[in-house]
């Protein structure tokens, strides 16, 4: 019988499914993930870092993200099928000759502090904390009243630095606690509003909605401020996606000229996006339908933007 997916896995898979992440946010996420999850070894005088994870989607996300930031990186993936009752599969990434990754992502396994070169604004801070949660975070099911979210670490000094990082995030106020559990140092939240804020901050908006919906059955409170934060988070994601789409469209226009597209829908969609940064995919579908006089769905718009993204990567010389 297949094991039921946990709420921790749901949150991590939502974080790992985010697209159009800025390179700065992605770099900070990878920096935290490798710093917490990575195990160093030396092979033929080269530094090799090994990353292990039981979640296939998280592993695939980390692999594709590393390849996006380091296209020529020597990295391999393997897996190991555990023979215990759970029959879990362990996915293993090996970054060979990883010194360049450590340097560009400001990763130090010796120092506990977190470099300001990798976290310097709200976007990179939330990216770093999202990477930390992907590496060693867990959260109780929202179906239980025992609210608890934690990130487990092996270094006390690093745990203190990571805890301080929350206070530097300007948009949402959060104050985690630190406790020692056997040989680990745990950064944790037990207040439901703090857990909701964390989920919003790391981009797990759908998981936050599920958490709030479940919590409402037992503990009804005024959620106005939190829902406002969700609206802001959704709008931020829309704007971030739009900015990247506009960047890619402008590049294609400079190289090829979008007026040379043989697909009228694609050409018109490009002009609509250039003129309307704040429109969601649904709104763009409605506008495109009005302009062309035919019904065009949000799914169709998403498909067109995927084609545009692939063309952009090819023009940049990136294999797809």
Explain this structure to me?
By secondary structure, this protein is α+β, with helices and mostly antiparallel strands. The chain has helices at residues 7-16, 23-37, 56-69, 99-104, 122-136, 156-167, 192-201, 205-218, 224-255, 264-275, 281-292, 298-315, and strands at 39-43, 46-53, 75-81, 89-95, 137-139, 149-153, 177-181, 184-189. It has two domains: 7-221, Homing endonucleases (Endonuclease I-creI, Roll); 232-315, no CATH class. Helices cover 53% and strands 14% of the residues. The strands form two sheets. Strands 1-2-4-3 form a four-stranded antiparallel β-sheet, with helices on one face. It has a four-stranded antiparallel β-sheet with strand order 5-6-8-7. Helix 7 (192-201) runs antiparallel to helix 8 (205-218), helix 10 (264-275) crosses helix 11 and helix 11 crosses helix 12. It starts with 6 loop residues before the first helix and ends in a 5-residue tail after the last helix. 32% of the residues are buried.
